[in-house]
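[job 4471] stage=fold_predict status=RUNNING
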Amino acid sequence: MIVLGVVKAGVDVVEVVVEVVVAVVVFVVARVVAGFVG
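[job 4471] inference complete, writing structure tokens
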């Protein structure tokens, strides 16, 4: 069952990475839009 624990931990890490990437993309897009508008 150790394998399941490792897979679960890997999934958790992937979820965190995806959240960070999405946050960065949203931030960059917001900056670009603000640059065009302002």
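[job 4471] summary: Residues 1-38 form one domain.
[job 4471] exit 0
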